[in-house]
Design brief:
This protein has 26 helices and 19 strands. The chain is of the alpha/beta class and 693 residues long. Helix 15 packs across helix 16 and helix 19 runs parallel beside helix 21. Pfam families: GNAT_acetyltr_2, NAT10_TcmA_helicase, TmcA_N.
């Protein structure tokens, strides 16, 4: 090593390796200098470098994290000049082995807050040109205050004389105990699912391989979205059974077979056990389906990681298991295996990305004592405790929250944040994004489909429904996330917080909206607040497995009646095909507030005539469809079984033989009687309420 600033680095690395710890080394200076320093550090050792610099020959700049996951290196370099992307940086840290070093190349710390980070564009919308990054300002402060190793090109450097840590031997006893416990659990006649959780580096995937080895006579499928994610499970199965470790292209080893989730659901193989690794990144509806594929199922997931945060997933999925599989067991791996406890790199990453933020809410909430207030990005920057509490609550609200969301929270100028506090405890967060307010020329291009500028998701979708540029030229507020502490839910705090946030922004925007995975209970919540559905997505969201529904608050000077009428026609058109498998309760909730039309006189005459005679199904069905299409709110007056039958038979066009148990129809005669009963109920409702002609 040529640079005297690195003179004691080899000795430090030797001490680090002896302690089985990992560390971060920040190289502050020009990009060329940082790359040269890194190359001098690694020498001829095999390493991983992440950079988009054209002259950094050995480096890669992967578009997907799975391209580097499952690998380990003594030296890993992250070139911050290529853009500080939290997900990518955290993933790079995850590939550093015990005794290894994560080298982070950055500009000098005193210039970092004003540095033009090329990644900042990812968190900006069209028309935004911020001069600074609160995320990088926080990064500067944390690096300055933390015991990181640092070498500067121009300023003072910090490398300790020695790295002193107690030597810890590798303790595999907790992992072995967990494996034995799960094997014993599945030995019972009545099997129940297992929920296995751990932070990264705890040997979770290895435990799955060891379980497969213990059950070597059983047929087992291991499931994950990427084959590379389960390589460690195959590796430990091979080690335990004395076999050659398979390549990542090999999907079978002894009794273990890899299959992605959709392949498992399509094939439904005859197996003895199903393992799902990194379950938190698989949509919960798919996880529920996987539960039905095999009586013995293990759901394993990382609680703190770069793919997303598993805390919210664990809480949500546990509720489902508690309801349907009360004998399930939950197990957790605490101590790290890949490196020793109290690992400096892990501690730095947790601090930097607030990965271990825990939400602390009082057990009892008095709604009248809750206070509501707006919070700025500067408030978050100056109050680390508040930032960590806000992020922890957002993590609980959405199990796909990743470390990228922390930077978005701090660096997006369009963000507007509002909180609910109870006795100094944070109990609610409402995150909004200001959209629209673009010029007319750009709005016309958006309406024609010629332009799709960054951000402004809701405004652009509304504009493109009917070419109405008002939704782009006027400002709107999209409610991105509403998160209420579990102990504070079902007490009206969420409704009050949204109401407070809307009141604060009412003079600044022309409309309010939100977009979320369509669920019956969730949609009802928004409808009670005055929001109406205006668009249902055409593809299921990969995160939730649900169609996204876009809702707009009815109190707006803009013309939403036209797009609501269009949504009504589109929904009825697509229900028999695209949305045929939507739960009927959700279909009813989508329909119940759709705009009504006046009945045609001919329809009323035909209804009165058919209702007074013994009519056939062929006479009744199209008439009922016409009535519901004209005034969907009639569904609200029917009893539940009638609602269900009308929706499943007429709107979604299911065949009675497909849903015998739900419809309670077992013959053609019964089907005829059902249609006559539905006609009687609908006709009675129209007659009683005397709807206008």
């Amino acid at each position: 090593m040529q640079d005297s600033k690195q003179s004691n680095l080899p000795a430090l690395l030797g001490e680090l390796k002896q302690a089985r710890h990992r560390q971060i080394l920040v190289l502050c200076g020009s990009q060329q200098w940082g790359i040269a320093q890194y190359k001098a550090i690694i020498g001829d050792n095999t390493a991983l470098a992440l950079s988009s610099h054209a002259q950094f020959e050995e480096a890669i700049w992967p578009q997907h994290l799975h391209q580097i996951l499952g690998q380990e290196f003594q030296f890993v370099c992250y070139d911050g000049y290529s853009g500080v992307i939290p997900n990518k940086l955290a993933a790079a840290a995850g590939t550093v082995q015990a005794g290894g070093l994560l080298v982070l190349i950055l500009p000098e710390l005193n210039s970092l807050s004003q540095w033009c980070d090329p990644a900042l564009d990812k968190w900006l919308s069209e028309g935004e040109t911020p001069s600074s990054s609160p995320f990088l300002m926080r990064l500067t402060k944390l690096i300055t205050q933390s015991p990181v190793w640092l070498i500067s090109e121009q300023a003072d450097s910090y490398l300790p004389e020695h790295y002193i840590a107690s030597t810890q031997s590798l303790d595999l006893a907790p992992q072995a105990s967990l494996v034995s416990n799960i094997v014993e659990h599945f030995s019972h006649k009545v099997a129940a699912p297992v929920l296995l959780s751990a932070d990264r580096g705890r040997g979770k995937s290895a435990a799955l391989g060891l379980i497969a080895a213990h059950e070597k006579t059983k047929k087992i499928v291991i499931c994950a979205q990427q084959r590379r994610a389960v390589q460690n499970s195959f590796k430990h199965l091979a080690l335990e059974l004395g076999l050659c470790e398979p390549s990542v292209q090999q999907n079978n080893l002894h009794n273990l077979t890899y299959m992605p989730p959709d392949a498992v659901l399509a094939a439904r193989p005859n197996i003895d056990m199903l393992m799902i690794d990194e379950a938190a990144v698989i949509p919960v509806p798919i996880l529920k389906q996987l539960l039905t594929c095999c009586p013995k199922v293990i759901f394993a997931s990382t609680l703190v990681g770069y793919e997303g945060n598993g805390r919210g997933y664990t809480l949500r999925f546990q509720n489902h298991l508690q309801t349907h599989y009360p004998n399930y067991i939950s197990r957790h791996l605490e101590a790290p295996i890949r490196y020793a406890s109290d690992d400096p790199l892990e501690n730095h990453m947790r601090l930097l990305f607030a990965l271990d933020s825990e939400h602390d809410a009082p057990s009892q909430i008095l709604p009248t004592a809750v206070q509501y207030q707006p919070i700025t990005r500067v408030d978050l920057l100056n109050d680390e405790t508040l930032l960590r509490q806000v992020f922890a609550l957002l993590v609980l609200a959405h199990y796909q929250t990743s470390v990228n969301d922390l930077r978005q929270l701090l660096d997006s100028p369009s963000n507007r944040l509002f909180i609910a506090k109870h006795a100094q405890h944070l109990v609610g967060v409402c995150l909004m994004s200001i959209e629209g307010d673009l010029n007319e020329a750009l709005a016309v291009q958006i309406a024609s489909g010629a332009r799709r500028p960054a951000g402004h998701m809701m405004a652009q979708q509304l504009c493109q429904l009917q070419g109405d540029t008002d939704f782009v030229t006027h400002a709107g507020a999209r409610i991105v996330r509403i998160a209420i502490a579990p102990t504070a839910q079902h007490q009206g705090i969420g409704r009050a917080l949204i109401g407070f946030a809307m009141q604060q922004l009412r003079d600044q925007v022309s409309y309010f909206g939100s977009s979320f995975g369509a669920q019956e209970k969730l949609l009802r919540f928004w409808q009670k607040l005055g929001f109406e559905p205006v668009k249902l997505g055409y593809k299921k969201d990969k995160s939730s497995g649900e169609f996204a529904v876009l809702v707009i608050h009815r109190d707006t000077p803009l013309n939403i009646s036209a797009i609501r009428a269009q949504f009504k026609s589109q929904l009825f058109f697509d229900l028999p095909d695209l949305y045929q498998d939507l739960p009927w309760q959700l279909v009813y909730t989508l329909c119940r507030t759709l705009p009504p039309c006046e009945f045609k006189q001919s329809t009323l005459r035909q209804l009165a005539y058919v209702a007074k005679k013994t009519a056939t199904q062929q006479q009744i069905a199209p008439l009922l469809y016409d009535v519901i299409m004209t005034q969907p709110s009639i569904l609200s007056a029917l009893i539940n079984i009638s609602k269900m039958r009308l929706i499943l038979l007429l709107l979604q066009r299911h065949q009675p033989k497909e849903l015998v148990s739900e419809l309670k129809i077992e013959s053609k005669k019964q089907l005829q009687l059902v249609f006559q009963q539905l006609l009687s109920e609908v006709y009675a409702e129209i007659t009683i309420t005397k709807r206008p002609n």
